[in-house]
Predict the structure.
Amino acid sequence: MNKLLINIFLITFLVFLGHNVEGLGVNWGDITSHKLPPKDVVKMLQENGIKKVKLFNNDDTILNALAGTGIEVMIGISNQLLKDLVNPDIAKKWVKENVTRYEPKSPKGVNITLIGVGNEPFLRDYKDTLTNVTGPALENVQNALNDAGLGDTTKATVPLNADVYLSPSWNPVPSAGFFRADIVDPLNYILKVLNKNNAPFMVNIYPFLSLFYGNGAFPFNYAFFDGVSNPLKDKDGVEYTNCFDANLDTCAAALAGAGYSNMTIIVGEMGWPTDGNPCANVTLAEKFYKGFISYLAKGKGSPRRPGYIEAYIFALFDEDRKSTLPGNFETHWGLYYDDGKPKFPLDLNGNNKSLVPVPNVEALSKKWCGVKPDVKNFTDLISYACDRADCTPLTNGSSCEILSDAAKASYAVNAYFQNQQQKDDSCDFEGKATVTTKDPSQGTCNFTIGFKTLTPLTPSPSPLPSSDHSSSSDAKAPSSSSASPSSPKSLAFASVVVFSIVPLLIISDSSFYTL
């Protein structure tokens, strides 16, 4: 009898575990020089039991690959379109062309459940340019969904940066959370629309960025889910042992203060990068994700929001063309490398199954590009190659920081060589580089091999320039200070929320999908 009871308990626990982890989705971005075939990525999603996907656009190829799978899909509307969507007729046209035509209510269609109207439009960088158009755009899109007979299953929301709420300096605890004074009116407009249509409030939360911008003042363990010896104490004896709970409950308190204590909160982005910073590595990312998934599986929630929490991991893949303006970790948020291989074992749905790779990805030949031994000046080589490939692993605190100057130059030219699909003339550099079949990887620094892709390559291989390295590039060099077309012109991620434990930075990422 005891054995039977134990078995019943285990079965019940596993069902409970799997049920709660089903609230986990992934962000699928595409700021990359080489894209994997969407149909193969979708196969990988299904193999891993991933049932929710958040997109930053409405890529037709991706949406067609998702058709008939039942995977819940969120598609994004760029900030550039918000002003146009203030016109109800344009909103109706957008819904018809980007939602209705994919037949979201048909088993053979795309299961579009959410529309992201803009992305973090209240970032201070925008200087109020989107403040007064976001709410009307949201309302018009939702009304268009309602008119099309889709409003009961497809909801419009606005993904927001976590800097829209904070706690006062004189009472720095989650329960005192409130919305920023400069956006109260436009945010109330949004909240009324969401509430009227039973749509969720969406916010992006990043414990890593709290640690990164904490400048050593933020307690390391508070970014994870293992608990801390000195928890943050709120009123009524409530204690916070991790940054995520404190952040989420600050948001919940702000919503309650605005009159929406029961509004659903979805975490639109949550992740940990694996390179580009001393705290961005595979070991810590694995620790973070395993802790977060275990947290979700328990179904406990936060003190103010107990129970089920829906969240989207940021991100599915590394994206080598993202701007490195916020930090050199920006190209390394993926659970997967850009070739579709998982970075570490991870069970996403409580089925004791590690991540499976994207199928049908064919690696290029086992050969690398390296600088010849007689080359002594590496500046131009590195500048040219890193303007056209991702060299962030070479930066301070990153996986290839330990390399000699010559080895760093070889890493750079190899990154370019692989990015150019190992074309014969892409490993020459005016006779200063050559191809080798000996793997030059050292320690934590992996000299990668590319994968075969049909993605058009730009720019094509060309001779090493003399001094001007300001031409357009496939990816930002580590030293780049210019923003890409898909990022804000300056970094203003966050306001600071000061809790009694230490400064807790309420900040977010994804400003690279805003335009």
In short: The chain has one domain: 2-353+492-513. The radius of gyration is 24 Å.
